[in-house]
Amino acid sequence: MIVLEQLTKRYGDAVVVDRLSLEVARGELLVLLGGSGSGKTTTLKMINRLVEPSAGRVLIDGADVTAVEPAALRRRIGYAFQQVGLFPHMTVAENVGITPALLGWEAARVAARVDTLLELVELDPATFRDRRPAELSGGQQQRVGVARALAAEPAVLLLDEPFGALDPLTRDRLQQSIISIRTKIGVTIVFVTHDMVEALLLGDRIAVLRDGRLVQLGTPAELLRRPADPYVAQLMETPLRHGRIVDALAGSQQD
């Protein structure tokens, strides 16, 4: 579905992404995991040409993304990020429906799609359709952002730390929503996070990046059981340590 071939991004002498090659299968959720400066967000943005690569290429369904004009490409690829970026002067329905409208969909089709997506992200259309972003909680705004990213029926959804600023309970509910959405519509997702637990919970596979290079690519179980190097082992130790602490606390409560 998505193929990155020797993808590279340089800013002057600084190499931000270094000859990254990997494939994402249709319907897969691939997590790009790494700390600040690892190149994960830059990689994500090269998929939809928000950032142009210095070398290498991105293929979607076998076609080089550079063969498509950037704005047209981005209308075919859903994209949601932590800051949400909803238009404050527009209603929820207008925010969600903006891309289909730009693509020339008929008004009735746009309205039906908006209602379908609001239901998909667990926002009652009758309650939320006519509200403006300022009237929503942070979690509700993120749900609208995901709905907007899915509005034009994209085959690919790019998520850049979309839940990073939310409280733990809201974040957990939205993570469960992403799992549910995948099950229902089968979209291919590339998900950027620096949160190891989030990566383990959501990813079919995890690509660990460090200094712009791919350190390890595997399933959550493979990374936990067979980390490729001390850096990956250190990343995986955090959720394992937290799990042991929670287990110990739960055991002490039972005694």
Could you give a quick summary of the protein structure above?
The chain contains 10 helices and 10 strands.
Mean pLDDT: 91
The structure class reads alpha/beta
Globally, the shape reads: globular
Return Rg in Å.
19 Å
Helix content: 40-55%
Order of helices and strands: EEEHEEHEHHHHEHEHEEHH
The total of beta strands comes to 10
Cα(first) to Cα(last) distance is 51 Å
Number of helices: 10
Percent strand: 15-25%
Question: Which segments are poorly predicted (pLDDT under 50) over 5 or more consecutive residues?
Answer: none
Biggest sheet record? 6 strands, mixed
Strand order of the largest sheet: 6-7-8-3-9-10
Task: List its salient traits.
alpha/beta; 24% strand; six-stranded mixed β-sheet; single chain
Question: What can you see in these coordinates?
Answer:
With 255 residues, this protein is α/β, with parallel strands linked by helices. It has 10 helices and 10 strands. The chain has helices at residues 40-47, 70-76, 92-102, 107-120, 125-128, 138-149, 168-185, 196-202, 220-225, 230-254, and strands at 2-11, 14-24, 29-33, 55-60, 63-64, 77-81, 156-160, 188-193, 205-210, 213-218. The strands form 2 sheets. A 6-stranded mixed beta sheet has the order 6-7-8-3-9-10, with helices on both faces. A hairpin with a 2-residue loop joins strand 4 (55-60) and strand 5 (63-64). The protein is globular and about 55 Å long. The chain starts with a strand and ends with a helix.
